[in-house]
Design brief:
The complex is a heterodimer of chains A (about 400) and B (about 300). Chain A is α+β, with helices and mostly antiparallel strands and about 400 residues long. Chain A is built from nine helices and 21 strands. In chain A, the strands form four sheets. A six-stranded mixed sheet of chain A has the order 6-7-8-3-9-10, with helices on both faces. In chain A, helix 2 crosses helix 3 and helix 2 packs parallel to helix 4. Chain B is flat, with a radius of gyration of 24 Å. The chains are: A alpha+beta (about 400), B mainly alpha (about 300). At the A-B interface, strand 6 and helix 2 of A face helix 8 and helix 9 of B.
């Protein structure tokens, strides 16, 4: 079942008198495709959980419409939407055994949906088997590990065969190792059940690794939608570029002069663009390659060894923070430990309007679009970003 | 561990000292008195040792009356007040407007003096030669014959006592249960809502188990408190409780110690030990039952 949000707004009235109300979600317009795993990604407070709650029906939109396939769900209460929701802290009923927790949604069914005891038990056991917790059915939630509790929560959400599975920060309460394992699990379960799944996370690693599509949000509005790699390789604006990628992207104040990109006095690369203007130049850490004939020189500060890779940390007057280059440890011998020069991989370099943060592209046909977007807009625009 | 033993005892000493002097010693003393026949405070003498005190107390019609009164009081007021408090606090939790006002109103009896409240109840219920009292005035509107609640039939007096007790213990229970309800995480209700749980089932399967430790606490303290009822009874019916037929166990013990003819510490002691055993038994039963029903 696909989930369609049409220009959905959610406005929370302000608690103090006179202050403006807060838009938690603004003009959210997207069709979650059927049977896919979509990650809602953004920093805390960006409205991603609110979006999830709007889909679940725990919140009602201020404006806009919500459809499941072609059925209007905008004013349908949560219990009639047939969604499964996994809460951030799982919300397992502590006084009930795992089995009873999983049975709970089934026992609520009434009328023609009512199941016999045997059917309920069968469905519960099937769900438990799917998430591989069949051996834990008699235990109480408190005696389970975080990862096991997570599985129980997923089983409870899946047991009623929901139209849509919603996961709110499903991995944030797990330790690093378990997180890796559990996200694979979520992917596997989603593939097996083919249920349309939407999950919320602030961790880009998590979103990138398992999603079919990611929706990057900031301040209530969608920034960019696309396949994870596509969004990473082709960020629509500076926010998306900064938000995706660990370690974070390096951002320089630069300018376009005579169809070339400059950081300070150094020419980085040629860049066909109609006019001379100040820009932000963002380069992924893996796009900075230390080399003797590099185009960008910086002051070396330190080397961080991270096992597989090493990071070269340097400083540059055009960048407010430290700049970081990732080098595979095999060719670390090239590094001169005083001042470093970097050559730049062009596909890892992005140019953004210094005012609006929108992406500027060298391509002639794209110049117009870049201009229209940057026209007098505040830092983050509400333009929805459709890549395709 | 071994090394800190001395220090640990030192820290515990003040508390232990107080407990020993004011709790353990009197308890042991009372236990001893209860077996000493005809003990006399002044001369510190007694006739003999045996079960005579218990035999006397258990055959004393006043004691039996006090025992029956106390049991009726306990059996009626503990469940009624707990259920009422639960209903009221559920109501309080579900409203937003005027919640603080209602909370204050419900809490007022808690800060009011027992005897003052008793006086008010007497005025409400008492029937004199000049006036039938407020309650009777209301009853007469429905063509019900006036009843003397204070000096009249037994059921009327018991009704006033139970009504009064429930009213006095309610505020504390409401406060405890309101905060217990507030501590149930919202996610549980959200999860239940998504699963389409009926509100009755939410109450029975989620709310009640979640606040069961608090309910249990209230039931236990309620039982103990009701078994020790005395000042409330005095406030309504005066000090001559045996005559009014409204004595309680603690009242009986008090009368035996200081009552008009006064000075039967041996009988008082054995009555006190019997009360102690009753409370101990009831609490133990409570604890056993709670093991199955209370979820921590």
């Amino acid at each position: 079942m696909k989930v369609v949000l049409k220009h959905v707004d959610k406005e929370f009235p302000s608690k103090t008198k006179g202050a403006d109300s807060v838009f938690a979600v603004k003009d959210f317009d997207f069709e979650f495709p059927e049977g896919k795993l979509v990650g809602l990604l953004g920093p805390s407070g960006c409205g991603k959980s609110t979006t999830l709650n709007l889909i679940s029906g725990l919140l009602r939109p201020t404006k806009g419409e919500i459809f499941f396939d072609s059925i209007d769900m905008t004013n349908t209460p949560a219990e009639k939407r047939g969604v499964g929701l996994v809460f951030q802290n799982y919300a397992l009923y502590p006084h009930l055994s795992v089995l009873n927790n999983i049975l709970f949604p089934l026992q609520n069914l009434k009328g023609k949906d009512k199941l016999t005891k045997e059917e309920m038990l069968k469905r519960a056991h099937d769900a438990a088997e799917l998430v591989e917790i069949s051996h834990l059915l008699d235990r109480k939630p408190a005696s389970l590990s975080g990862g096991q509790q997570q599985r129980v929560a997923i089983a409870r959400a899946l047991v009623k065969k929901p139209n849509v599975l919603l996961l709110d920060e499903p991995l944030s309460n797990l330790d690093a190792r378990l997180r890796l394992q559990t996200r694979e699990e979520i992917r596997r379960i989603q593939k097996e059940t083919k249920v349309t799944t939407i999950f919320v996370t602030h961790d880009q690693d998590e979103a990138m690794s398992i999603s079919d599509l990611i929706v990057v949000m900031n301040e209530g509005s969608i920034q960019q939608i696309g396949a994870p790699q596509e969004v990473y390789d082709n960020p629509k604006n500076l926010f998306v570029a900064k938000f995706l990628g660990i370690p974070p992207i390096n951002v320089f104040d630069g300018e376009i002069r005579e169809n070339s990109l400059y950081i300070g006095d150094e020419k980085i690369t040629s860049f066909a663009y109609g006019k001379n203007t100040a820009v932000k130049i963002a380069i992924r850490p893996e796009g900075l390659i230390p080399s003797e004939d590099g185009v960008l020189s910086a002051k070396f500060s330190s080397v961080e060894v991270m096992g597989r890779d090493i990071s070269v940390i340097a400083q540059h007057p055009a960048s407010s923070g430290k700049i970081r280059a990732i080098v595979s440890s095999v060719n670390s011998q090239n590094i001169c430990y005083d001042s470093v020069k970097f050559s730049v991989a062009e596909n890892k370099l992005f140019v953004f309007d210094s005012e609006s943060g929108e992406r500027l592209l060298a391509d002639k046909s794209q110049v117009q679009e870049g201009k229209s977007k940057s026209a007098g807009k505040p830092k983050t625009t509400k333009k929805k970003a459709q890549t395709k | 561990m071994e090394k800190n033993n001395l220090k640990a005892w030192l820290y515990l000493l003040p508390a232990l000292l107080f407990i020993a002097v004011f709790l353990v010693y009197p308890l042991v003393d009372v236990f001893i008195y209860s077996f000493e026949e005809g003990y006399n405070f002044a001369s510190q003498s007694f006739f003999g040792i045996g079960f005579y005190n218990y035999k006397f107390v258990l055959n004393d019609p006043y004691f039996i009356k006090a025992l029956v009164n106390t049991f009726i009081l306990v059996i009626i007021t503990v469940p009624v007040s707990t259920i009422l408090a639960l209903l009221i606090s559920m109501g309080l939790s579900s409203i937003k407007a005027l919640r603080n006002l209602f909370q204050t109103i419900y809490f007022l009896p808690y800060v009011t003096n027992t005897l003052a409240v008793g006086m008010v109840f007497m005025i409400l219920f008492k029937k004199t030669a000049y006036s039938d009292g407020l309650v009777n005035a209301v009853l007469s509107l429905f063509n019900i014959a006036p009843v003397d609640f204070i000096d009249g039939p037994y059921w009327a007096k018991m009704f006033v006592l139970c009504f009064y007790t429930v009213w006095v213990v309610l505020p504390f229970k409401i406060i405890i249960l309101t905060s217990a309800l507030a501590s149930v995480k919202k996610e549980y209700y959200d999860a239940a809502k998504i699963d389409g749980t009926s509100s009755f089932r939410v109450f029975r399967k989620i709310t009640l188990p979640m606040i069961s430790p608090m309910i249990f606490y209230l039931v236990i303290t309620g039982f103990i408190g009701a078994f020790k009822a005395y000042s409330d009874v005095v406030a309504i019916f005066g000090t001559d409780l045996n005559n009014a037929g409204m004595n309680t166990l603690v009242g009986y013990i008090y009368d035996m110690l200081y009552g008009d003819s006064g000075g039967y510490p041996s009988y008082a002691s054995s009555a006190a030990i019997i009360l102690f055993l009753i409370v101990l038994t009831v609490t133990t039963i409570n604890l056993l039952v709670s093991k199955k029903r209370v979820h921590y």
